[in-house]
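Morning. Coffee machine broken again, so started the prediction first thing and wrote up yesterday's gels while waiting. Chain of 250 residues, entered below exactly as on the submission form.
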Amino acid sequence: MPSTVNYDAVAPAYDRRYETNRLDGVEAVLRRFIGKSECADVAEVGCGTGHWLAKIRNLVRRAAGLDLSAEMLDRARIAAPDALVVRGRAEQLPWTTGRFDLLYCVNALHHFGNVEAFLAEARRVLRPHGAFMTIGLDPHTNLDTWWIYDYFPTARQADRGRYLPTSTIRGQLEAHGFMDAATTVAHHVSASVPFATALERGMVDRCAASQFMVVSDTAYEEGLRRLRAEQPVLHADLRLYVTFARALSS
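Came back before lunch.
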Protein backbone atom coordinates (compact mmCIF):
# COMPACT_ATOMS: atom_id res chain seq x y z
CA MET A 1 0.00 0.00 0.00
CA PRO A 2 1.60 3.31 -1.02
CA SER A 3 2.24 5.94 1.58
CA THR A 4 -0.07 8.92 1.88
CA VAL A 5 2.52 10.96 3.74
CA ASN A 6 3.14 14.47 2.44
CA TYR A 7 6.87 14.77 3.00
CA ASP A 8 7.03 18.30 1.62
CA ALA A 9 4.97 19.32 4.65
CA VAL A 10 6.95 17.10 7.03
CA ALA A 11 10.41 18.21 5.88
CA PRO A 12 10.98 21.18 8.26
CA ALA A 13 10.58 19.01 11.37
CA TYR A 14 11.74 15.65 10.02
CA ASP A 15 15.23 15.55 11.54
CA ARG A 16 13.89 16.11 15.06
CA ARG A 17 13.48 12.31 15.27
CA TYR A 18 17.25 11.91 15.39
CA GLU A 19 17.40 14.07 18.51
CA THR A 20 15.40 11.48 20.46
CA ASN A 21 16.81 8.37 18.77
CA ARG A 22 20.17 8.57 17.03
CA LEU A 23 19.83 5.07 15.53
CA ASP A 24 23.48 4.25 16.20
CA GLY A 25 22.86 0.65 15.17
CA VAL A 26 21.67 1.78 11.75
CA GLU A 27 24.75 3.97 11.31
CA ALA A 28 27.02 1.08 12.28
CA VAL A 29 25.35 -1.25 9.77
CA LEU A 30 25.57 1.40 7.06
CA ARG A 31 29.27 1.89 7.72
CA ARG A 32 29.88 -1.86 7.52
CA PHE A 33 27.93 -1.99 4.27
CA ILE A 34 30.08 0.78 2.79
CA GLY A 35 33.24 -0.79 4.21
CA LYS A 36 36.56 0.41 2.83
CA SER A 37 35.01 1.67 -0.38
CA GLU A 38 36.75 4.97 -1.01
CA CYS A 39 36.56 4.16 -4.72
CA ALA A 40 32.90 3.13 -4.67
CA ASP A 41 29.93 4.90 -6.22
CA VAL A 42 26.99 4.68 -3.82
CA ALA A 43 23.30 5.61 -4.10
CA GLU A 44 20.60 6.07 -1.48
CA VAL A 45 17.00 5.77 -2.66
CA GLY A 46 14.56 7.62 -0.44
CA CYS A 47 17.34 9.82 0.91
CA GLY A 48 15.01 12.34 2.55
CA THR A 49 16.86 15.16 4.27
CA GLY A 50 20.26 13.60 3.53
CA HIS A 51 20.89 12.45 7.10
CA TRP A 52 22.47 9.14 6.03
CA LEU A 53 24.20 10.59 2.98
CA ALA A 54 25.98 12.96 5.34
CA LYS A 55 27.20 9.99 7.38
CA ILE A 56 29.01 8.46 4.39
CA ARG A 57 30.31 11.59 2.68
CA ASN A 58 33.96 10.84 3.54
CA LEU A 59 33.72 7.08 2.98
CA VAL A 60 32.98 6.82 -0.75
CA ARG A 61 34.14 8.20 -4.07
CA ARG A 62 30.77 9.51 -5.19
CA ALA A 63 27.39 9.52 -3.47
CA ALA A 64 23.98 10.11 -5.01
CA GLY A 65 20.53 10.36 -3.51
CA LEU A 66 16.98 10.25 -4.79
CA ASP A 67 13.72 11.32 -3.19
CA LEU A 68 10.27 12.33 -4.39
CA SER A 69 9.95 15.29 -2.02
CA ALA A 70 11.47 18.54 -3.27
CA GLU A 71 11.42 20.02 0.25
CA MET A 72 13.32 17.06 1.68
CA LEU A 73 15.88 17.34 -1.10
CA ASP A 74 16.45 21.03 -0.34
CA ARG A 75 17.60 19.94 3.09
CA ALA A 76 19.63 17.04 1.70
CA ARG A 77 21.64 19.45 -0.45
CA ILE A 78 22.61 21.31 2.73
CA ALA A 79 23.31 18.19 4.83
CA ALA A 80 25.33 16.43 2.10
CA PRO A 81 26.60 19.11 -0.31
CA ASP A 82 28.99 16.72 -2.05
CA ALA A 83 26.23 14.27 -3.00
CA LEU A 84 24.34 14.49 -6.27
CA VAL A 85 20.70 14.45 -5.20
CA VAL A 86 17.83 14.28 -7.66
CA ARG A 87 14.06 14.20 -7.51
CA GLY A 88 12.41 11.09 -8.83
CA ARG A 89 10.58 7.84 -8.17
CA ALA A 90 12.13 4.65 -6.89
CA GLU A 91 10.34 2.67 -9.58
CA GLN A 92 12.00 4.71 -12.35
CA LEU A 93 15.54 5.44 -11.26
CA PRO A 94 17.09 8.20 -13.41
CA TRP A 95 20.56 6.68 -13.48
CA THR A 96 22.28 4.73 -16.25
CA THR A 97 22.68 0.97 -16.18
CA GLY A 98 25.62 -0.22 -14.05
CA ARG A 99 26.15 3.20 -12.48
CA PHE A 100 26.71 2.15 -8.84
CA ASP A 101 28.64 -0.32 -6.70
CA LEU A 102 26.31 -0.06 -3.72
CA LEU A 103 22.69 0.96 -3.29
CA TYR A 104 20.72 1.25 -0.06
CA CYS A 105 17.56 2.61 1.50
CA VAL A 106 16.82 3.32 5.17
CA ASN A 107 13.23 3.38 6.43
CA ALA A 108 12.06 4.07 2.90
CA LEU A 109 11.06 0.83 1.17
CA HIS A 110 7.54 0.91 2.61
CA HIS A 111 6.92 4.24 0.87
CA PHE A 112 7.59 2.88 -2.62
CA GLY A 113 4.45 2.22 -4.61
CA ASN A 114 5.83 -0.84 -6.41
CA VAL A 115 8.64 -2.59 -4.56
CA GLU A 116 9.22 -5.18 -7.27
CA ALA A 117 9.66 -2.46 -9.89
CA PHE A 118 12.13 -0.71 -7.59
CA LEU A 119 14.15 -3.89 -7.04
CA ALA A 120 14.35 -4.46 -10.78
CA GLU A 121 15.61 -0.90 -11.17
CA ALA A 122 18.06 -1.34 -8.30
CA ARG A 123 19.54 -4.38 -10.01
CA ARG A 124 19.75 -2.47 -13.29
CA VAL A 125 21.76 0.44 -11.89
CA LEU A 126 24.10 -1.78 -9.86
CA ARG A 127 27.30 -3.13 -11.36
CA PRO A 128 27.94 -6.88 -11.44
CA HIS A 129 28.76 -8.08 -7.92
CA GLY A 130 27.38 -4.84 -6.50
CA ALA A 131 25.41 -4.93 -3.26
CA PHE A 132 22.01 -3.83 -1.99
CA MET A 133 20.80 -3.05 1.52
CA THR A 134 17.44 -2.04 2.97
CA ILE A 135 16.59 -1.26 6.60
CA GLY A 136 13.10 -1.05 8.08
CA LEU A 137 10.47 -2.43 10.46
CA ASP A 138 8.82 -5.79 10.07
CA PRO A 139 5.47 -5.53 11.90
CA HIS A 140 4.59 -9.05 10.76
CA THR A 141 6.90 -10.72 13.30
CA ASN A 142 4.68 -9.89 16.29
CA LEU A 143 7.85 -9.40 18.34
CA ASP A 144 7.56 -5.65 18.78
CA THR A 145 5.58 -3.56 21.23
CA TRP A 146 5.08 0.15 20.65
CA TRP A 147 2.98 2.75 22.34
CA ILE A 148 1.98 4.12 18.93
CA TYR A 149 0.33 0.80 18.09
CA ASP A 150 -1.31 0.70 21.54
CA TYR A 151 -2.89 4.15 21.31
CA PHE A 152 -3.30 4.35 17.54
CA PRO A 153 -4.27 0.75 16.63
CA THR A 154 -5.10 1.54 13.01
CA ALA A 155 -1.42 2.49 12.60
CA ARG A 156 -0.51 -1.16 13.22
CA GLN A 157 -3.00 -2.23 10.56
CA ALA A 158 -1.60 0.34 8.13
CA ASP A 159 1.97 -0.76 8.80
CA ARG A 160 1.14 -4.38 8.06
CA GLY A 161 -0.06 -3.19 4.69
CA ARG A 162 2.84 -0.81 4.05
CA TYR A 163 5.76 -2.96 5.22
CA LEU A 164 6.65 -6.22 3.54
CA PRO A 165 7.77 -9.17 5.68
CA THR A 166 11.54 -9.53 5.44
CA SER A 167 11.03 -13.03 4.03
CA THR A 168 9.07 -11.50 1.15
CA ILE A 169 11.79 -8.91 0.55
CA ARG A 170 14.40 -11.67 0.33
CA GLY A 171 12.27 -13.64 -2.10
CA GLN A 172 11.70 -10.62 -4.31
CA LEU A 173 15.40 -9.79 -4.31
CA GLU A 174 16.28 -13.28 -5.52
CA ALA A 175 13.58 -13.03 -8.19
CA HIS A 176 15.13 -9.82 -9.52
CA GLY A 177 18.74 -10.81 -9.99
CA PHE A 178 20.17 -10.81 -6.47
CA MET A 179 21.69 -13.64 -4.45
CA ASP A 180 22.67 -14.46 -0.88
CA ALA A 181 19.84 -12.37 0.56
CA ALA A 182 19.99 -12.38 4.36
CA THR A 183 18.29 -10.49 7.18
CA THR A 184 19.53 -9.55 10.65
CA VAL A 185 18.57 -7.01 13.31
CA ALA A 186 20.21 -3.65 12.58
CA HIS A 187 18.99 -1.68 15.58
CA HIS A 188 16.95 -2.49 18.69
CA VAL A 189 14.96 0.38 20.13
CA SER A 190 14.12 -0.06 23.81
CA ALA A 191 12.79 3.08 25.43
CA SER A 192 10.39 4.34 28.08
CA VAL A 193 9.43 8.01 28.07
CA PRO A 194 6.87 9.77 30.29
CA PHE A 195 4.06 11.28 28.25
CA ALA A 196 4.83 14.81 29.46
CA THR A 197 8.41 14.46 28.22
CA ALA A 198 7.26 12.98 24.92
CA LEU A 199 4.85 15.87 24.46
CA GLU A 200 7.61 18.39 25.16
CA ARG A 201 9.92 16.68 22.65
CA GLY A 202 7.27 16.69 19.94
CA MET A 203 7.09 12.89 19.85
CA VAL A 204 3.30 12.89 19.51
CA ASP A 205 3.13 15.63 16.86
CA ARG A 206 1.33 14.52 13.71
CA CYS A 207 4.56 14.82 11.71
CA ALA A 208 6.73 12.96 14.25
CA ALA A 209 6.22 9.56 12.61
CA SER A 210 4.63 8.35 9.40
CA GLN A 211 2.42 6.09 11.53
CA PHE A 212 0.55 9.19 12.71
CA MET A 213 0.19 10.49 9.18
CA VAL A 214 -1.40 7.38 7.69
CA VAL A 215 -4.22 7.16 10.24
CA SER A 216 -7.42 9.18 9.96
CA ASP A 217 -7.87 12.50 11.71
CA THR A 218 -10.43 10.84 13.98
CA ALA A 219 -8.05 8.01 14.92
CA TYR A 220 -5.24 10.45 15.62
CA GLU A 221 -7.38 12.70 17.79
CA GLU A 222 -8.80 9.73 19.70
CA GLY A 223 -5.32 8.38 20.43
CA LEU A 224 -4.12 11.80 21.53
CA ARG A 225 -7.17 12.20 23.79
CA ARG A 226 -6.41 8.88 25.48
CA LEU A 227 -2.77 9.83 25.97
CA ARG A 228 -3.68 13.15 27.55
CA ALA A 229 -6.21 11.49 29.84
CA GLU A 230 -3.99 8.60 30.95
CA GLN A 231 -0.59 10.38 31.00
CA PRO A 232 1.21 7.02 30.57
CA VAL A 233 4.86 6.13 30.29
CA LEU A 234 5.36 5.43 26.60
CA HIS A 235 7.13 2.13 25.99
CA ALA A 236 8.81 1.01 22.78
CA ASP A 237 10.55 -2.28 22.07
CA LEU A 238 11.17 -2.30 18.33
CA ARG A 239 13.56 -3.93 15.90
CA LEU A 240 14.82 -2.43 12.67
CA TYR A 241 15.86 -5.19 10.30
CA VAL A 242 18.55 -5.00 7.66
CA THR A 243 18.38 -7.15 4.54
CA PHE A 244 21.49 -7.49 2.39
CA ALA A 245 21.90 -9.04 -1.05
CA ARG A 246 24.53 -9.20 -3.78
CA ALA A 247 23.85 -8.55 -7.44
CA LEU A 248 24.36 -11.48 -9.74
CA SER A 249 26.96 -11.01 -12.43
CA SER A 250 25.51 -10.11 -15.83
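Strands lie at 41-45, 62-67, 84-87, 100-106, 126-136, 145-146, 178-194, 233-247. Going to sketch it on the whiteboard this afternoon.
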